[in-house]
UniProtKB/TrEMBL annotation, chain A:
<feature type="transmembrane region" description="Helical">
    <location>
        <begin position="305"/>
        <end position="326"/>
    </location>
</feature>
<keyword id="KW-0812">Transmembrane</keyword>
<keyword id="KW-0813">Transport</keyword>
<keyword id="KW-1003">Cell membrane</keyword>
<dbReference type="GO" id="GO:0005886">
    <property type="term" value="C:plasma membrane"/>
</dbReference>
<dbReference type="GO" id="GO:0006817">
    <property type="term" value="P:phosphate ion transport"/>
</dbReference>
<comment type="similarity">
    <text>Belongs to the binding-protein-dependent transport system permease family. CysTW subfamily.</text>
</comment>
<protein>
    <recommendedName>
        <fullName>Phosphate transport system permease protein</fullName>
    </recommendedName>
</protein>
<feature type="transmembrane region" description="Helical">
    <location>
        <begin position="430"/>
        <end position="454"/>
    </location>
</feature>
UniProtKB/TrEMBL annotation, chain B:
<dbReference type="InterPro" id="IPR017871">
    <property type="entry name" value="ABC_transporter-like_CS"/>
</dbReference>
<dbReference type="InterPro" id="IPR005670">
    <property type="entry name" value="PstB-like"/>
</dbReference>
<dbReference type="Pfam" id="PF00005">
    <property type="entry name" value="ABC_tran"/>
</dbReference>
<dbReference type="InterPro" id="IPR003439">
    <property type="entry name" value="ABC_transporter-like_ATP-bd"/>
</dbReference>
<feature type="domain" description="ABC transporter">
    <location>
        <begin position="39"/>
        <end position="289"/>
    </location>
</feature>
<dbReference type="GO" id="GO:0035435">
    <property type="term" value="P:phosphate ion transmembrane transport"/>
</dbReference>
<keyword id="KW-0592">Phosphate transport</keyword>
<keyword id="KW-0813">Transport</keyword>
<keyword id="KW-0547">Nucleotide-binding</keyword>
Length: 462, 294
């Protein structure tokens, strides 16, 4: 039986044991005497308890077996190989084991080397035994678990507490998955970055002003020696993010104020979702809108007033990115403005303040921490955005703060460094990880700041 | 009114015979306000005739309220929850304008001036008729800025020294200055509940209003803070007219000169506080103050 089949059988068994466990506990329960019965928990909890005993240990063994069996079988197969094949470097051995697996998958007859054929047959045989044993062990374990679970159906068993305990562990596991993923990403980026900094000094990377990552991949290629000064990328990122925020913050904030303070409920009910549609447009669509519509428009306007605008400009990318993050700004600000208690507004009106005075002097200051939080979230979104910049701002790493010229950003360079042919020990490829690490650190700091500020705001009103 | 009063008085002994104008029947039929709702013109600060308030969907909250509020008096408005006392209070400084779908009709005059008149700006009216709310609602600013908020809005101080003086005198009048004089720059939200409410009173006084409306100002406070505020109200009567809505009949009896009893959106009885509590003329008033309902 394959793993999927075992899983299905296991779920059927668990459902069955829930049913049996519940039934047994109902049979145990004495008829209600003066409004209560002798069971500690509701019958359903006994059912769950039996199902847990039946399912969880078997499931854990199944998982472990599936994960570990392959490497154990490979080891055993390799042990049977002729000695001249065994005494080779680690890379060669892993190549051989891959070949054996391919043979098993594609048909052993295709093998040319008799030694390999023998090995493949051995591998296939072991796999068969392993699958058989896995099925038997898991199902037997499920049945043993069921039997143990049934023994626990007694009026004195605190089934509810035990089931809730198990559920608590399941939830911890779910939380751990997200955290472990983050840790995994960070470590992988960190180790590659350390390799990069082994080849290029960190000071050159952080403070160099020239970015030209093209290195010769093969010895016969003619290529630049490669220089990895990331300052132009950081400046480009900052420039485009600043333009985007300059567009998004006033527009988003103003629309939030309109929506929360002035709009009638009817207008609000339609305008707010409409604004949020902006957030649903894929960034690649924004990208070609920027490249095909906005950038030529800006160039033409520039030409009209006598400015020389590059056809791919930071301005075009920044403006479109700004439009893209308007809903972040407006939606979050709208929420925090709405969260300002009506009593604040009443207090201000009661003093003879006008609506605009109330908004400027009471509502906005009260909502300010939340608005700053929204701003920082929008900023980290702008810094991480890639697609629009790839399409509209170009790839040339100019060190400039002129928004009319083409610039490039950290994320865009990561994309260009990692597309096409790669060699994972060249500085060019590893630079992508260093850039990724730098970006990660910056957005992490922004997010932490944003969360701190939002938390401080919540404390004030609850 | 007088007729109704006489009917009441005449019917009072005959509790077992529900005749026309008798108690039982009268209890369900509030035809007009008994007691002494009206004052001489020269003593009148607020004059209100035929005031009705409607909320969204033509739901009427208060019905035909006629009452005068005297200069430098404390008038307490009492009645069961939802009787319209707060709604009427909010008519007096047009705070109901800020509620969507709320409509006020009738004639309300402040010193003879129609507050719904075309040339009347509700913003300026609210500077003359200040308001203190049920829950202390200091702004999330410093104590100083809370009090300086109104004077700054209305340009009452020419320079910093004048502003300092207004802040100090307002806090002093509200009985808070001694407690906070060393921490004027700390947030107003950091004060205790009773201090916050006195801060709100100081804030209201700072714009020198003529009338202060108080909507259950002590209902969120403990008895000691309540006592402090009540003493304060008594002192403030020297310079302001005060209308106070309260749930506590004892409080009304302690601090007010006149008391108005509202029931189901109607003004049932207005009289000197002592008369209302010792010799109520309307059955509903008597039921309420003797604790039979409400």
């Amino acid at each position: 039986m394959n793993t999927l089949g075992i899983l299905l059988t296991l779920s059927v068994l668990a459902a069955f044991s829930y049913y049996i466990g519940r039934k047994r506990s109902l049979a145990l329960a004495t008829p209600a005497k003066r409004g209560g019965n002798n069971l500690h928990s509701l019958p359903g909890y006994y059912g769950y308890l039996v199902a847990i005993w039946c399912g969880i240990p078997a499931l854990i063994i199944l998982l472990l077996w599936s994960v570990l069996s392959d490497s154990i079988i490979t080891q055993m197969t390799l042990a049977h190989l002729p000695t001249e094949l065994q005494n080779q470097s680690g890379d060669q051995v892993s190549l051989i084991s891959n070949q054996i697996r391919n043979l098993v998958a594609n048909g052993i007859e295709t093998a040319t080397d008799p030694a390999m054929k023998v090995a493949a047959e051995e591998y296939s045989r072991l796999q068969g035994i392993s699958n058989m044993a896995k099925t038997v062990v898991v199902l037997v374990l499920a049945i043993i678990g069921f039997a143990i679970g049934m023994r626990f159906i007694k009026p004195t068993t605190r089934a509810r507490n035990q089931v809730e305990h198990v559920i608590q562990y399941v939830m911890i596991l779910c939380a751990a998955v997200a955290i472990l993923t983050t840790v995994g990403i960070i470590t992988s980026v960190l180790f590659e970055s350390i390799r990069f900094f082994g080849q290029v000094p960190a000071t050159d990377f952080l403070f160099g002003t020239h970015w030209s990552p093209q290195t010769a991949i093969r010895a016969d290629q003619v290529g630049g020696s490669g220089s990895f000064g990331a300052i132009p990328l950081f400046v480009g990122t900052l420039l485009i993010s600043a333009i985007a925020l300059l567009i998004a913050v006033p527009l988003g904030l103003m629309s939030a104020i309109y929506l929360s303070e002035y709009a009638s409920p009817f207008v609000r009910a339609y305008v707010k979702p409409a604004l949020e549609i902006l957030a649903g447009i894929p960034t690649v669509v924004y990208g070609f809108f920027a490249a095909l519509t906005v950038a030529p428009f800006i160039r033409d306007v520039g030409a009209m007033i006598g400015l020389n605008v590059a056809s791919e400009s930071a301005l075009a990318a920044g403006v479109v990115m700004g439009v893209m993050i308007i809903p972040f700004m407006s939606s979050l600000s709208d929420d925090v403005i709405n969260a300002v208690p009506q009593a604040m507004r009443d207090g201000s009106y009661g003093m003879g303040a006008t609506k605009s005075e109330t908004i400027k002097q009471v509502v906005l200051p009260a909502a300010l921490p939340g608005i700053v939080g929204a701003f920082l979230l929008a900023a980290s979104r702008a810094i991480g955005e890639t697609m629009i910049v790839v399409m509209a701002a170009g790839l040339s790493a100019n060190l400039t703060v002129n928004p009319l010229e083409a610039v490039t950003t950290v994320t865009v360079q990561i994309v260009t460094l990692l597309t096409g042919d790669q060699e994972f020990d060249s500085a060019k490829t590893l630079a992508a990880f260093a850039l990724g690490l730098a970006l990660f650190v910056v957005t992490l700091i922004l997010n932490i700041l944003a969360l701190q500020i939002v938390r401080k705001y919540r404390e004030q009103y609850e | 009114m007088t007729e109704a009063t006489l009917n009441m008085a005449a019917a009072a002994p005959q509790t077992h015979k529900p005749a026309a104008g008798g108690r039982e029947e009268f209890a369900h039929d509030i035809t007009g306000t008994v007691g002494k709702p009206f004052l001489d013109g020269k003593d009148t600060k607020f004059f209100s005739r035929g005031v009705n308030v409607f909320y969204t969907g033509n739901k009427q909250a208060i019905f035909d309220v006629n009452v005068d509020i005297g200069r430098n008096e404390v008038i307490a408005m009492i009645g069961p929850s939802g009787c319209g006392k707060s709604t009427f209070l909010r008519c007096l400084n047009r705070m109901n304008d800020t509620i969507a779908g709320c409509r006020v009709t009738g004639d309300i005059r402040l010193d003879g001036e129609d507050i719904h008149g075309k040339e009347q700006d509700p913003v300026l009216l609210r500077a003359r008729v200040g308001m203190v709310f049920q829950k202390p609602n200091p702004f999330p600013k410093s104590i100083y800025d809370n009090v300086a908020y109104g004077p700054r809005l209305h340009g009452l101080a020419a320079n910093r020294a004048e502003l300092d003086e207004i802040v100090e005198s307002s806090l002093t009048k509200a009985g808070l200055f001694k407690e906070v004089k060393d921490r004027l720059q700390t947030p107003g939200t950091g004060l205790s509940g009773g201090q916050q409410q006195r801060l709100c009173i100081a804030r209201t006084i700072a714009v020198s209003p003529e009338v202060i409306l108080m909507d259950e100002p002590t209902s969120a406070l403990d008895p000691i803070a309540t006592a402090t505020i009540e003493e304060l109200i008594d002192e403030l009567r020297q310079s302001f007219t005060i209308c106070i809505v309260t749930h506590s009949m004892q409080q009304a009896a302690r601090i007010s000169q006149r008391t108005a009893y509202f029931h189901m959106g109607k003004l049932v009885e207005v009289n000197n506080t002592k008369t209302v509590f010792t010799n109520p003329q309307h059955q509903l008033t008597e039921n309420y103050i003797t604790g039979r309902f409400g």
